[in-house]
Amino acid sequence: MPDYNIGNSRARYRTPGDIRLPRGMRLVSFDNGVVDVEMQSNGMRFAVLPFGKGNGAMLRRLCVGGSRLEDSTWAGSCHVIEHMDFRTLDWLSFGGMNKNASTCKNYIEHQANLLLDPAVGHVQKELQFQVDTMNGINIKALLPQDIRLEIQNVWDERNFNAQSGSAYRTMVMKCEEMLLPRVWGPQAWCKPTIGDQGSLAHIKTQEDLMNLHLMMRAPQRTALVLAGAVDVNQTLKLFSDVFAGVQRNTSPLLRDLPPSLTPCNIGRVSANVTTNAGTRYISVAGFRPAYSALSAVAEVMQHLVGALGAQPAVKQHGVECVSMYCNPNSHAGVYAIVAKVTMAGNEHAAMVEAQHAIEEHIMAP
User: Fold this and answer.
1) What are phi and psi of 45, to 5 degrees?
2) CA–CA dist 221, 251 (Å, integer)
3) Could you count the other beta carbons within 10 Å of the beta carbon of residue 349?
């Protein structure tokens, strides 16, 4: 029987030796008490941040993928299965817990702010909800009329997002629609996560939803994050007891997982992802605080459209397929230049040379 009494603001974890890993869990990293572990049976990752005081905690479950896994036939399907997770819930049984979910191009996310007191039952209820949705149990309980109504709710979000005051959001989405196909490939769905009425019409039955659920979500691409005044060892033991029965998903993806292009280190190489032998993608992020979001996008777009694709000075450094990405969750003026780097000799030297070429011939002008 799992022990849900994980609240403890007095425990201190100063070294990795203080962590008691349950059987089947592997320590990935330890940093000042923050623990990242992997469940080896299904590949699921868990991060515990033992911060704060009181009796509350924040839980997030993120499944890497999101709408960048979609094609035009199944556009909007990630957003739909996120909605379907909640369609059959008895909200009153969650006892006032603050719950929500979201879908973006990079991941599908569940969020919950909950009380740690076992007598309240938030932890028990939320973890069971997470197991059920990972196994598709909520989807299996849906009737055809439930599916039709929830797809209509998804489509209604499109009209809400198009209301006055969303000019910045619209600009970012248009920018993504123009640029992301150059990085993710021509078959990728690069428009808003809502999809369109033609693609949503393909989703009709529980079987459709379960097939999409298995294609879009898997434990080995899932991370559960818990932050609060918790005992790390007790929390890891609870996670082991609750999620050990979730099976690794071997279903093929709808399409290969493209690289994430979210800028993270301003002015430095922020990511490089192997795509095939001898090839990397490089992302160099920049920040122009003097510009608004619109002028920053316009300026970089001008460089891209006007010269970058054909500049010999860039290609000589092994840099190809140059694009610009603007992260909608970043502050105004943040952007990233993304390019493919062909390896020739030492990988580190090639990446440094590529970064220098991007900064000198693309960002500096």
Assistant:
1) -105, 145
2) 12
3) 11
Q: Cα(315)–Cα(101) distance, rounded to whole angstroms? A: 42
> Where would I find the beta strands (DSSP E) of 133-250?
222-228
Residue with tokens 């030297």: 349
Question: What CA–CA distance (Å, rounded) separates 208 from 77?
Answer: 10
Residues in the chain: 365
Task: From 4, 43, 54, select the one nearest 227 (Cα to Cα).
Answer: 54
Instruction: State the greatest distance between any 2 C-alpha atoms of the chain, in Å, as a whole number.
Output: 67
Q: What are phi and psi of 319, to 5 degrees?
A: -105, 125
* 63 neighbors 136 (Cβ within 8 angstroms): no
CA distance 86 to 133: 9
Q: How far is residue 360's CA from residue 205's CA, in Å, rounded to a whole number?
A: 53
Dihedral sign of CA atoms 103, 104, 108, 109 in order: negative
In this structure, what token pair is assigned to residue 168?
A: 């910045």
Structure confidence by residue, pLDDT tens digits, 328-338: 444 455 566 67
Beta bridge partners of 277: none
Q: CA dihedral defined by 32, 33, 34, 36, rounded to 10 degrees?
A: 110
Of 177, 246, 200, give the one whose Cα is nearest residue 79. 200
pTM of the entire predicted model: 0.71
Q: How far apart are CA 192 and CA 328, in angstroms?
A: 12
Q: What is the mean pLDDT of residues 102-121?
A: 92
Q: 248-304 pLDDT, tens per residue?
A: 999 999 888 877 654 433 333 334 444 444 456 676 666 555 444 444 444 445 445
Each residue of 132-158: pLDDT tens digit? 999 999 999 899 999 999 999 988 887
Which residue pairs, CB below 8 angstroms and at least 24 apart, start in 151-154? Answer: 151/80, 151/83, 151/200, 151/203, 153/83, 154/76, 154/79, 154/80, 154/83, 154/194, 154/195, 154/200
**Closest to 85 measured CA to CA, from 28, 141, 139, 11:** 139
38-51 pLDDT, tens digit each:
999 999 999 999 98
Rounded distance, CA 162 to CA 178, Å?
A: 19
Q: How far apart are CA 105 and CA 173, in angstroms?
A: 11
